[in-house]
């Protein structure tokens, strides 16, 4: 006797009797046991910098999952310091978990990439999110390069740039890793440039051309993405106005000259008072000499 193993998963447990005879007569019973395995896989994970606790920390969030994944942290480049994240797992009424894992930023290492990884107990794909933040300054009318580099574990990812200055984020451009083409959105197409030959090698730096203080000061976000992985670099860019800078410089020059003039006047006054005091003492000595002679 045999069955069709490939058909079992479809609910077909038919039994095949080969070379049957009179001895095979009788009643055959089939018992089917259904095992229901419930799982809510990871759909997305977020990683962002938080300052709400009174200090800077990375916050990695995974929502509506079951069973709860295991979260680990790493940095790029690797650091010898002991990473001590705090991870909380909370289940709702349906049994779905929200995982909140936080890691305090390491002191004295501002250019680190922080990496959050989530693994599931049932052997699903490993999800990875990484983030780096920086600040740079530029000058009006002078081209500025905003750096963005993909970690080595990302192979030929897609790339997207966006901008925000306190309002809703605006799309700058998208790079398609399959076609090798980039598509920028007006009016950014007149102010940005991307080297498409360097993106496949992990360099997604954006060249900002003829920047203006009022239009281009803000937060620039670069995101490399591929299935189950994404890397984000957020850069706070300040475009200085050379006129205001020159005005500030001239203002401080005037303040410096005024202070220097006051100091010189004070020194001159002290010198005058000192000389006057000497002359007064000499006159008193002369008067005393005249009285003695008389």
TrEMBL record:
Chief subcellular location: membrane
Transmembrane segments: 251-273
Domain of life, source organism: Eukaryota
InterPro entries the record matches: Ig-like_dom, Ig-like_dom_sf, Ig-like_fold, Ig_V-set, T-cell_Activation_Regulation
Cellular localisation: Cell membrane
Biological processes per GO annotation: cell surface receptor signaling pathway; cellular response to lipopolysaccharide; immune response; negative regulation of T cell proliferation; positive regulation of T cell proliferation; T cell costimulation
Record has Transmembrane as a keyword: yes
Keywords: Cell membrane, Disulfide bond, Glycoprotein, Immunoglobulin domain, Membrane, Receptor, Signal, Transmembrane, Transmembrane helix
Record membrane topology: Single-pass type I membrane protein
Residues of the Ig-like domain: 125-238
GO cellular component: external side of plasma membrane
Pfam family membership, one: V-set
Protein name: Ig-like domain-containing protein
